[in-house]
Design goal:
Layout (H helix, E strand, L loop, with lengths): L2 H25 L6 H9 L20 E4 L2 E3 L2 H11 L6 E5 L5 H7 L4 E6 L2 H13 L5 E5 L12 E6 L8 H5 L1 E11 L7 E7 L5 E8 L9
Parallel strand pairs: 3-4, 3-6, 4-5, 6-7
Antiparallel strand pairs: 1-2, 7-8, 8-9
Helix pairs in contact: 1-3
Length: 221
């Protein structure tokens, strides 16, 4: 990263901190955990956006990445990562790779990330970029994430980066008891809530709504 990019990164981190303080009453977090902050700071966000958007890469806002998809707002990436409560030994499933930015952040925090993207050109580009950044603990798979990845289950947690009215049953079954699913719940064009779902030993989900959000729709259902 150049010195210029370093200054933009610091400004982005400060903007994320500001949003954490503003939303603390509903999220329960008034700051980024230090390990999440370090992970965000370690990933060059400008590498994950199209060349025409690179001057805006460190703004605290979503950006288009093509195919009707976006790279999420940095605050939302930091918040979803925080809500996942990642541990160093965890295996995490991400549904909706997009450009690979969220997977890259998680790769700095857990043992293994499996990420699935239904748009094949995005999956290929993300795979190449993650490899170029030497993030060897990320497996990027082109396919329909609705079924999860049973061959790699069980997962300690799941992050879904597209909105749906419910969690696919297949994904619920692939989460360890006590594990978490973090996703936007709600249909596109209607009310969506960033939600934490915790799986109990009997497979039931405890639900905690965190924050109103707006995500692209979950496709492939």
């Amino acid at each position: 990263m150049t010195a210029f990019d370093d200054s933009l990164m610091q400004a982005m981190l400060e903007a994320i901190d500001h949003h954490f303080r503003e939303t603390a009453a509903t999220t329960g977090y008034d700051r980024m955990p230090p390990e999440v902050r370090a992970a965000i700071a370690a990933i060059p966000r400008h590498r994950f956006v199209p060349p025409a958007s690179r001057r805006e890469a460190y703004r605290d806002s979503p950006l288009p990445i093509g195919f009707g998809q976006t790279i999420s707002q940095p605050f939302i990436v930091a918040l979803m990562t925080t809500l996942l409560r990642p541990n160093p030994g965890d295996r995490v499933l991400e549904v909706g790779t997009g450009c690979g930015y969220q997977a890259a952040v998680l790769a700095k925090l857990v043992d293994q990330v499996f990420t699935v993207e239904i748009v094949a050109p995005l999956a290929r580009a993300a795979n190449e970029l993650l490899a170029s950044l030497k993030l060897a603990n990320v497996s990027c798979i082109s396919g329909n994430g609705n079924a999860g990845l049973a061959e790699h289950a069980p997962f300690d947690s799941v992050i879904i980066t597209a909105a749906a009215g419910s969690v696919p049953d297949a994904i619920v079954s692939q989460v360890r008891p006590g594990g978490r699913i973090v996703m936007p719940l709600g249909e596109p064009g209607s009310r969506q809530q960033l939600t934490v779902l915790t799986r109990s030993a009997d497979g039931e989900l405890r639900r905690q709504e965190v924050l109103p959000v707006q995500f692209v729709p979950f496709t492939g259902r």
